[in-house]
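ok new one. same drill as before - structure tokens go in, u give me an amino acid for every spot. 346 of them this time. try not to just spam alanines like last time pls lmao
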């Protein structure tokens, strides 16, 4: 085992603090990664605060991990020392169910092993990317193309795939009108990816405060959802709406913005339940759907796509000691658009 420095929450809702954790010895099919950068996802905050239910503490958050391979097990064939790699939201799955065999490990019937706040097959808790090193089975590691800097690539391991997967699944592209609901860490990636796919892109945001950014990143249109006229003007406009908002919304209102047989797919994960009038989907044959990250093959596809189109996250690089301030700023929407920890400062 290896002792490494990390930042952890010792208890629910407690500030993160510097500590040390143990990483397992490299097994036959394992890859040891020197973590260079770790993104801060809103999911990290939800879990530290137990917003999604009881959690495991101490907790080392972080599932947007970019680094360099420093050791491989004797059975590893996919990676070698020096490779640029990433780790996202999961580090194992059953590998036997139909979903796993189809490359959709995120929907593992038996439940995948989360990168942090999870229990591995060895019965030990998992610790995430706010640390200096991590050991992961090679099957849950992805390659970061040379065209992507590691710092702006780190958030792609969650934010990037979370938007890429539904945009691809529901055929965002030329001739399609796509709305991205929310202009934050997830939403700004949706704008970039939908634009690169060739769709006509609209941002729906609470205010026009980030309009210049939205247009710069690839949006064709930008509307404030706080203005009632927006819902009148855009009625029956979109083929696809991707909601990145992690707070309850009036989905009945947003469903009116879809064309007949349009899709509103939710990737945000509110802590509270929503209310829905089913006539909002019955009328117009509309679909209210969900999507959760992506499988390992699709995550690699996303990274290759982003490298080919010059897409990285818009980041604010911070030192590890600033993580608690960063959490506060994320909760007040004061980041453009993803905090990334320089793990050399841990």
């Amino acid at each position: 085992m290896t002792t490494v420095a990390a930042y952890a929450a010792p208890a629910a809702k407690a500030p993160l603090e510097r500590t040390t954790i143990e990483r397992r010895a490299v097994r036959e099919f394992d890859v040891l990664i020197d973590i260079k950068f770790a993104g801060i996802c809103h999911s990290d905050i939800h879990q530290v605060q137990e917003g999604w239910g009881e959690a495991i503490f101490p907790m080392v958050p972080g599932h947007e991990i970019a680094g360099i391979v420093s050791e491989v097990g004797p059975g590893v064939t996919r990676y070698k020392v020096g490779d640029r790699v990433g780790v996202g939201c999961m580090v194992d799955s059953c590998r036997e169910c139909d979903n796993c065999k189809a490359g959709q490990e995120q929907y593992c019937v038996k439940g995948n092993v989360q990168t942090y706040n999870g229990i591995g097959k060895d019965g030990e808790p998992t610790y995430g990317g706010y640390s200096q090193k991590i050991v992961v089975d090679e099957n849950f590691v992805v390659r970061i193309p040379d065209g992507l800097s590691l710092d702006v690539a780190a958030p792609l391991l969650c934010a990037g795939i979370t938007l890429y997967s539904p945009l691809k699944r529901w055929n965002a592209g030329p001739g399609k009108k796509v709305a991205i609901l929310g202009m934050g860490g997830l939403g700004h990636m949706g704008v970039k990816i939908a634009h690169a796919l060739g769709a006509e892109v609209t941002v729906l945001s609470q205010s026009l405060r980030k309009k210049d950014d939205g247009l710069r990143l690839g949006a064709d249109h930008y509307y404030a959802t706080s203005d009632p006229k927006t819902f009148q003007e855009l009625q029956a406009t979109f083929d696809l709406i991707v909601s990145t908002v992690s707070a309850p919304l009036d989905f009945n209102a947003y469903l009116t913005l879809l064309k007949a047989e349009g899709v509103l797919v939710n990737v945000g994960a509110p802590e509270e339940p929503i209310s829905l009038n089913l006539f909002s989907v019955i009328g117009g044959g509309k679909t209210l759907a969900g999507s959760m990250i992506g499988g390992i093959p699709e995550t690699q596809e996303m990274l290759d796509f982003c490298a080919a189109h010059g897409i990285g996250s818009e980041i604010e690089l911070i030192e590890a000691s600033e993580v608690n301030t960063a959490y506060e700023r994320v909760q007040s929407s004061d980041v453009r658009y993803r905090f990334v920890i320089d793990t050399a400062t841990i």
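The longest helix spans residues 296-308. and btw The chain is about 25% helix and 25% strand.
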